[in-house]
Write a structure and sequence with these properties.
The longest helix has 14 residues. The protein is 31% helix and 21% strand. Strands 1, 2, 3, 4, 5, 6, 7 and 8 form an eight-stranded mixed β-sheet that branches. Helix 7 crosses helix 8. It contains eight helices and eight strands; from the N terminus they run αββαααβαβαββββαα. It has one domain: Alpha-Beta Barrel (Aconitase, domain 4). With 197 residues, the chain is α/β, with parallel strands linked by helices.
């Protein structure tokens, strides 16, 4: 788990930039999913005991829905879903497999409570927003300015007639969630702070 957190921090530094106004921007390509993406879709229960090695886990992401999906994921892609993302069991490996695939952000209309909790504990950023109208492959830029968040949605960079970015307001992200994420998850946060602030 510590290896995943360290890789996550390195990749976030590469894909996350501060704008002149001090806001953090996270750029990525939209990978579109639907409603009710449950933890067994994210990683099959039969796979959860195979390994904790991120290089192994990343191969299993969404394999039951689309066996080719994991191979098509690039570091920095952003999962975009509808309602109730992460429903099902409370298995933590359903967050671990997303991080192992190089995905640092999931944007959805709503999240299952246990998935939300596991994501915070492991440093995966979950953003709640209206995802209607976001298409597979859209260029995304998440702007975080303190607790406020905004998603900029544009056409893929290679599109011939790219439209200007649309702005989607997101639900605020609690400061403690951002602080835990910056530390690499709950365990690294507690090692440093010794308690929740």
């Amino acid at each position: 788990m510590q290896q995943i957190a360290q890789q996550q921090q390195q990749q976030e530094q590469q894909q996350s930039r501060r704008s002149p106004d001090g806001a953090e921007r996270i750029h990525g390509r939209a990978r579109l999913l639907g409603d009710d993406i449950n933890t067994d879709y994210l990683i099959a229960s039969s796979r959860k005991k195979d390994s904790l090695d991120p290089r192994v886990l990343r191969r299993y992401l969404l394999e039951d829905l689309d066996p080719a999906f994991a191979a098509s994921v690039a570091d920095g892609d952003i999962l975009v879903a509808g309602h109730n993302f992460g429903c099902g069991s409370a298995m933590e490996v359903a967050v671990t497999v997303v991080l192992a695939a190089g995905i640092r952000v999931v944007v959805a209309r709503s999240f299952a409570r246990t998935y939300w909790r596991n994501a915070i504990n492991n440093g995966l950023l979950l953003i709640t927003a209206d995802t209607a109208g976001i298409a597979e492959g859209d260029a995304l830029a998440l702007r975080l300015d303190g607790a406020s968040a905004e998603l900029l949605v544009g056409s893929p960079a290679h599109a011939a007639h790219a439209a200007p970015a649309r702005r989607i307001a997101c639900e605020p992200v609690p400061d403690i969630v951002l602080t835990i994420r910056a530390a690499g998850g709950l365990v690294p946060y507690l090692r440093h702070h010794r308690k929740l602030a």
